[in-house]
């Protein structure tokens, strides 16, 4: 388990104080994947550096299974880093070394004897699907294969936590999904706590159990995927279940009809039940369905006819397990 509490990193430039991290707190239990998503400048790179002990936090703690790595002595830093495996955006392999030697490098630093290193490398290359590539060099591999080598190397010292820094941003969509599925498989096999830093919501949807939104060095929203999806109006909910553009309403109707946004586990069952209950149509303007953390969620934007009280419809939908909110039609939705 990794537990980050009130992590702060302050840089000083001339007479300016830059708070790159301003009190980040999050937890990742064993056998789970937590995504940290944010745009450029949000503090993701600084967070990676502090978690990987490449940079000392100004304050706060980074605990792995109860041991605070942020405050280990400099002499113990190398040993402390072995508790954390890091997968970089680019594999950062040694071009002059074979694939086997790249994976063995952390074991060499740890003083593991040659025979034990060789056995571990064989095991790890098999785990990532590269058992026949041991004698190859990085230039002979595809981008996805090099990233697999990077993952194998990150696992060499049997870490408790796997930290993945934008692990798929340099890959094509198909290879991206293959690498994400590999990370999820490794998590399941080894029971690791995995923290994924990303700017791509697809990564979160594909493998994460929980997610945090990082902005200006702060976690502004966080929680299990199933929890944040249900927070209508929340940033993460909108990002996870993003509606496609809706068909425009005739301008003559825009002022008389109400629009509801509704989110629910499953498909459209709640909406269908509401239509039967009120004996009225609730036409869908736009909708989307996503499979998140083992559960299917749907979001729809629906019209409420003048014969119905929107508040009553919202209340009834909530009783059916669908969170809903009333929203006026946007300018784009009125022809």
TrEMBL record:
Domain of life, source organism: Bacteria
Keywords: Amino-acid transport, ATP-binding, Cell membrane, Membrane, Nucleotide-binding, Translocase, Transport
Classification via SUPFAM superfamilies: P-loop containing nucleoside triphosphate hydrolases (SSF52540)
Domain called ABC transporter: residue spans: 2-241
Organism: Tessaracoccus antarcticus
Any Gene Ontology biological process: amino acid transport
Name recorded for this polypeptide: ATP-binding cassette domain-containing protein
GO MF entries: ATP binding; ATP hydrolysis activity
């Amino acid at each position: 388990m990794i537990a980050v509490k009130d992590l702060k990193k302050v840089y000083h430039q001339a007479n300016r104080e830059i708070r790159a991290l301003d009190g980040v707190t999050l937890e990742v239990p064993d056998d789970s994947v937590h995504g940290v998503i944010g745009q450029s400048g949000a503090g993701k790179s600084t967070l990676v550096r502090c978690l990987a002990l490449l940079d000392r936090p100004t304050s706060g703690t980074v605990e792995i299974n109860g041991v605070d790595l942020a405050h280990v002595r400099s002499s113990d830093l190398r040993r402390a880093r072995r508790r954390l495996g890091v997968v970089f955006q680019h594999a950062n392999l040694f071009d002059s070394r074979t694939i086997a030697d790249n994976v063995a490098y952390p074991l060499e630093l740890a003083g593991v004897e040659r025979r034990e290193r060789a056995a571990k490398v064989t095991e790890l290359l098999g785990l990532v699907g590269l058992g026949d590539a041991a004698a190859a060099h990085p230039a002979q591999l595809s981008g996805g294969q090099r990233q697999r080598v990077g993952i194998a190397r990150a696992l060499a010292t049997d870490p408790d936590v796997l930290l993945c820094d934008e692990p798929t941003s340099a890959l094509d969509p198909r290879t991206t999904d293959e690498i994400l599925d590999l990370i999820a498989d490794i998590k399941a096999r080894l029971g690791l706590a995995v923290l994924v830093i990303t700017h791509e919501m697809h990564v979160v949807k594909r493998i994460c159990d929980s997610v945090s939104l990082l902005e200006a060095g702060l976690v502004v929203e966080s929680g299990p995927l199933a929890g944040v999806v249900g927070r209508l109006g929340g940033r993460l909910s909108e990002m996870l279940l993003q509606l496609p553009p809706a068909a425009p309403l005739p301008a003559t109707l825009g002022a008389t009809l109400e629009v509801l946004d509704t989110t629910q586990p499953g498909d459209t069952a709640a909406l269908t039940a509401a239509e039967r209950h009120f004996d009225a149509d609730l036409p869908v303007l736009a909708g989307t369905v996503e499979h998140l953390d083992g559960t299917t969620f749907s979001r729809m934007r629906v019209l409420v006819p003048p014969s119905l009280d929107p508040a009553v419809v919202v209340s009834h939908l909530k009783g059916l397990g669908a969170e809903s909110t009333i929203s006026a039609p946007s300018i784009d939705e009125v022809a």
